Amino acid sequence: MRAQVVIVGAGPAGLMLARLLELAGIDAVILERKSADYVLGRIRAGVLEQGTMDLMDRARAGQRMHAEGLIHQGVELSFDGDSQRIDFAALIDRHVMVYGQTEVTRDLMAARQARTIYEAEDVQLHDFDGKPFVTYRQNGLTHRIDCDFIAGCDGYHGVSRASVPAQSLTTFERIYPFGWLGVLVDQPPVAHELIYAHHARGFALCSQRSPTRSRYYVQVPADEKVENWSDARFWDELRIRLNPATAEALQTGASIEKSIAPLRSFVAEPLRFGKLFLAGDAAHIVPPTGAKGLNLAMSDVAALADALIEFFGENSAAGIDGYSAKVLSRIWKAERFSWWMTSLLHTFPETGAFGRRIQRAEFDYLAGSAAAQQSLAENYTGLPL
Hints:
By secondary structure, the protein is α+β, with helices and mostly antiparallel strands. It contains 13 helices and 20 strands.
């Protein structure tokens, strides 16, 4: 088999890249080691920046998103019960949309017409410094796809980044000493916008999936176990960390999903190795505090799609030559913002009372400064693609 581009990974980044290339008449094949049902079963949050919404429209996959997504004109931040709303609409005339990553994946799957090979085992990348090809096994047989380029969109633990020689790659990482314990519940959200709360006992987040389904989180130690948290214990802890009015309005119920997500910041450099490009979680991880993970992956593949379209359409390598530097500039800005949000809103055992006073001063400055609020709004709603 031959394709112009082989994309490893059928998550939203891989699907979006394939769809954009497909619309430009470029032959792209996706290889995914899991089944389509498994991919759709991954439950992930989804706060979409304006750029991601525009990209869904460009992919001709945005119709259901516009019909079902929940527009948010701002977010609320609180510190020990004191609240400050960040009004995106008033500050910068922009907004975000709550629309689950699973739904983005579903829409892109439905829009795509070309080949996606699921349950492709033992995917291996070959000769990406020369004439690249990819091999995989399926039903006991080994298959080969020759190609011009390979796009690694297969996540943090995927084969793409692991295929790069260690001496060719520089990585930057911070592991945070806590995680998020999340509960999904079929109850109306406690507020129509997201609430980020700092409390002496730890961070809390009130978010939503729909008008009737809510997602709540509390900060827990990195080594905490889900089994230690009954529903009752979770709801009691969440109420403590919210301001009294929000806690009183909270509607609880039996959890339909409960899990702990560790937090880390990670960036790999560079993102091009001959004919191989890394994008999405294969290239970077951000803590979820800034709602940047999915959006950053989408901005990566938007840039990569444009570069590949330019190469095949105009016989110009300028875009692919500049891909790594271009996306890394935006990646590091998103990493900075996600780190800043995380640093403001979580408790860090090692910083003690001084650290909390600094956080309080940061919150008070934000609450009193239109310029600081505008900066937060610009970053949260998404820097230009």
